[in-house]
Amino acid sequence: MVFKINIGSEDGKTYKLELESEELVGKSLGDTIPGTDLVGDLKDYEFVITGTSDSAGFTSMKEVEGVGLKKILIKYGKALHKKPKGVKKKNKRPRGMRYRKTVRGKVISANITQVNLKVSKQGKKSLTEIFPEQNKPKAEASVETPTENSK
């Protein structure tokens, strides 16, 4: 199984990594994992699992035990930002309104495709040195110069 891993650093950059490993299976949200479980270059790093999602886009929630999909009754917050039909103003939330929503349990299983991590302990090498190909600036858009024939 291939995991798409997003590593969020303290400076606000996100480093992406694709990893085919069994090390993450069985861990849950909020667990700390050493960097050597991901890549050998991250030996002094420690990461906290902050979120996951599966191939269908269902997110994991800390409040839901297990690995499977569950339908929970949820108020506005982390997993719900839907504007109800009867509300005209943008920021007005109706009192007491809840929705039933499908979410995934907090334990990582084979169905998970994306794992979000946060750096909890910095290593000796910076992440920009470990992932140099992701540190390049975005290519500037090519601007066409007018020629004599285009007049």
What are the SSEs and their pairings?
Layout: E1 2-8, E2 14-20, E3 32-34, E4 46-54, E5 69-74, E6 99-104, E7 112-121, H1 127-130
Parallel strand pairs: 1-7
Antiparallel strand pairs: 1-2, 3-4, 4-7, 5-6
Q: What radius of gyration results from the CA coordinates?
A: 21 Å
Percentage of residues assigned to helices:
under 10%
N-end to C-end Cα span: 56 Å
Assembly form of the protein: single chain
Task: Profile the largest sheet.
Answer: 5 strands, mixed
So how many helices? Answer: 1
Shape: globular
Describe the structure.
- Helices cover 3% and strands 32% of the residues.
- The mean pLDDT is 83.
- The protein has 1 helix and 7 strands.
- The chain has a 5-stranded mixed beta sheet, with no helix packed on it.
- The chain is mainly β and 151 residues long.
- It has one domain.
Looking at this protein, list some descriptive labels.
151 residues; mainly beta; five-stranded mixed sheet; 1 helix; 32% strand
Give a short summary of the structure.
The chain is built from one helix and seven strands, in the order E-E-E-E-E-E-E-H. The chain is mostly beta strands.
